[in-house]
Each structure stands twice: as C-alpha cells, then as structure tokens.
Amino acid sequence: MPKPFLLLLLAATIATRASSQTILDAYLRVGLDSNLALHQRNFDLQRAQLDLDRARTLFYPQAGISSQYTLANGGRTVPIPIGDLLNNVYSTLNQLTASRKFPQVANQNIQFLPNDFQDTKMEVTMPLFNSDLLHNREVTSETIVARRADRDVYRRDLVRSIRQAYYQYLQTGKAAEIYATALVLVRENRRVSEKFVENNMATREIVLRSQAQVSQVESQYIAAENDRRNAAAYFNFLLNRSLDTQIVTDSSLMAASAAPDSASGAPGLSPIKTSDGIAGREELDRLKSYRRILQSNLKWDRNYLLPKLNAFYDIGYQGYGFHFNSTQFYQLGGLQLTWTLFKANDNRYKIRQSRIDMDAIDEQYQQLTLELSLEQQTAFNNYRSAQEALNALADETGSAREAYRLVEKRFKEGQALQVDLIDARTQMTNAEIRYSLGRLAVLNRAADLERVNAAYKF
To answer: pLDDT category, 367, cuts 50, 70, 90?
Structure first.
C-alpha cells in the first residue's frame, strides 16, 4: 500500500472515531499487503497457477520446425553386387545384338552414413488419449488449493502477530507512562522530605531515602522506554517498514478504565464465537487437498493398463543437398500407441503404497482435528482466565491508589513514616504495571481466540 494512502487512512481513522475502521485494522491491512514472507507465499501460489496453465496446454497440438544437415566420411558401408548380378546378362545381350550397348558395371559400396544430406520438416503432435496428462492436471489443480490454504494459514498467523505486537507496543508505552507518573510522585516526595529537613522536622536520611527512590524509578523508566522502542521496531518489521517509523497509538485499548469486551475481549476485534468450531480452519483444507492428490495418485496407479495414443504429422524436405523441390518434398503422418503390459508387479506395489499413504493422511486429519479442538478450548479457557484475572487486578489497582492517596496525605501532615509512603507508592506502581500486563494478556488471548476460530475476515 502506498505510504501517502496509509497516512491519509490513519489520519481519517484518528479524526473520526465513530468510523468502523480502527487504527489497528488499518495496520493489519498494511501488514497483509506489504509483509515480505507473505509475498513469498503469494509467489508460490502464482507459480502453482502457471503450472496448471501449462498442464492444460499439453492437451493441445504441439508444432515445431527442425532441420538437420549431415556430412560424413567413412564408417560402415553396404555392398551392393550390381556387377555380379548384371554383367553376365549384359554380355549375353551384347552377343545377341552384336553390339556393345550394354557395358559392364562394377559392384557398388554404399556408405551407410549419409553425406551432404538434409532433413527439414515441421512436426505436429497431439495426444489423443493419455491418462498421465489427466493425472498431471488434477494434481496441479489441487496443488493450487494447498498453496492457497498454506498462504491463508500464514496470513492468519500474521494477523495475530501484528495484533500482539501492537498490543505489546501499547503496553510498553503504558508502562513508561506509569513510571513517568511514579517519577513525578517520588520527586515530589523528595521535595517534601527536603522541606521537612529544612524545618528540622526530620533528619537527613529521609532525603537520601527519597533520592534512592528517584534513582530507582528513573532506572525503571529508562528500561520501559527501551522496551517501547524494541516493541516499535518489531511491529514495524512485521509491516515491512523502516524500524524507526512512528506508530499511531489507540490509547483506548490500554486505558485503565476500559473493561474487556465480553464478545471479543478487546476493542477493534470482531466478535468471536467458539460455537463456530474448527470447520473454517485452513489447516484442515490443506490436508483435504493433500488427500485428493493422493486419491489422484491412486487412480493413476490403477490405470497402468490403459494405453497411450498420440497422433503425429510431418511435412518437409529430405534429400542430398538443399533443393526444396518436388523431389525432396514429403509428408508423413500416423498414430503412435504405447501399451505397457508387464512391469513385474511394479504398479501393484505402487497401488499398495498409495493406499498406505491414504490411510496415513486420514489419521493425520483425525489427529489434526483433535489438536485444533484442544487448541480452541485452551484458547477460550485462557481468555476467560485472563478476563477474570484482569477484574481482580482492577480491584487491586484501585485499592493501591486509594491507599497511596491516604498515606501521602498523612505523610505531608507528618503523621506517617516515609517507609510507609515508599511502600504504598511501590505497591501502587507495581499494581498499575500488573494491570497493564493483565490488559495485555486479555488482548493477546483474544487475538489467540480469533486465530483458532479463523474469525478474521480477509
């Protein structure tokens, strides 16, 4: 997708929040259009389509022009005893006619390799009946289905990866925001502590302790900012963009006041229904396609007794020297039949192998169905568990904030110890970080649930 169009799309998304198109939806479209690994799978699909086109051309007549010119000297010869056969007859005729009208001739040795000989022709061939060509067309057609399913499997994995990378970027940004807020609080704590010391209300140690808190939170903020930059680089990598490209954020996804959506688990996700089952999974479609290929192979192995019939027609010039006249002109046409009658039971063994392959892929299909069902149930359980954990984390965060507010008020009034304030602030910061991670877990589990249900519409 061209960059100007992407910028306009994102700008329109930000300006009109009522629009059904979200920021993340726009990024998903960009990723599906520009991801390099996905392009490779599209190339594989295009090559498979061209293979099918080539397989279809084999049913049509094929024509070509060829020319061969040979020079030869020596080699095998073919003796022709013309003299031995004719000289006695000629002698008798000469006696009867009292003349020499019938001279003696010598025996001839004809060189086997033709010298100064050319053969220029146009040859047209056409298959009339060939089961191999039918098999080739069927297999190539099914290969396209398998390639398409393989591409769609990667597309769904890519959608999940982009979603989760975007959520990770938002969470790291939220963590940096939390630490930035905490940094304001500890700096304020340091200022208040310095005032207490100046007014001889406390000793110097509370300033040192508050300064240590400032240094600790600054270190945590620096680490959070580094995590945010790394998350942004990975997200841009998935979109095949420059790693330092600015990312437009949707803060509603990580808002502390936002409750998880009961239908999708996250704003911007289409509703997920576990009742949809696994019928739409491309992994099953891919195995079905492989099974149809094996069926075609089995059918082909059983047709080993069928003959192959081709027609051909040649028109050209043949003779000594390049003259291209009526003497050298020729036409040649006919039918060619190939019929394999015995191959020491080789085809019967191939049929048995094909049957074994069919049984094996049937069991693979059953195993994959069980695995996908387990994956779906596990994803749903993880999503529900993440929702419940987030609700508990929301209560913890609210309590920690209220506790810090009360301790801070008492500390400023000189009725609470500094260690109580530090402990309350640390608990509040950690609770907010855990809530952001819990929110990230809900978003990630929702993306997993969307993936296992194949719910995203391309």
So the answer is: very high
CA 135 → CA 50, 93, 141, 311, 406, distances in Å?
Answer: 17, 70, 10, 20, 80
Structural contact between residues 107 and 82, judged by C-beta atoms closer than 8 angstroms: yes
Q: Which amino acid is at 340?
A: T
Residue in the structure block whose two tokens are 């905490």? 182
Return the SS3 of 249.
coil
- Tokens 């304001």 found at: 184
Distance CA 237, CA 244 (A): 10
What percent of the chain has pLDDT above 70?
Answer: 90
CB atoms within 10 A of CB 82: 12
The C-alpha atoms of residue 355 and residue 20 are separated, in whole angstroms, by 51
How far apart are alpha carbons 376 and 382 in whole angstroms?
Answer: 10
Joined together, the tokens standing for residue 253 give 């996804």
Helix (H/G/I), strand (E/B), else coil: 269: coil
Q: Please, are residues 270 and 455 in contact by the beta-carbon 8 Å criterion?
A: yes
Lowest mean pLDDT, pick from 9-13, 22-26, 236-240, 305-309:
9-13
SS3 243: coil
Amino acid at 341: L
Phi, psi dihedrals of residue 160, rounded to the nearest 5° = -65, -40
The full length of the chain comes to 458
Beta partners for 294? Answer: none
Structure tokens at 34: 């520009």
Residue spans of beta strands (DSSP E) within 290-344: 308-320, 329-338
The residues with which 67 forms a beta bridge, in sequence order, are 120
Burial of 64 (C-beta count, 10 Å sphere; 0-12/13-18/19+): exposed
The string of pLDDT tens digits covering residues 34-83 is 988 888 988 989 999 998 898 888 889 999 999 999 998 888 888 889 88
Beta bridge pairs of residue 310: 127, 336
Q: Which of 28-32, 59-63, 194-198, 232-236 has the lowest mean pLDDT?
A: 194-198
pLDDT in tens, 220-265: 999 999 999 999 999 999 999 999 999 998 878 876 434 444 334 4
Residues 6+ apart with CB under 8 A from 214: 183, 186, 187, 190
Query: Residue 258: is it exposed, middle or buried by C-beta count within 10 angstroms (0-12/13-18/19+)?
Result: middle
Q: What share of the chain is helix, strand, coil (3-state, %, to 5)?
A: 65, 10, 25
- How many other C-beta atoms are found inside a 10 Å radius of the C-beta of residue 302? 15
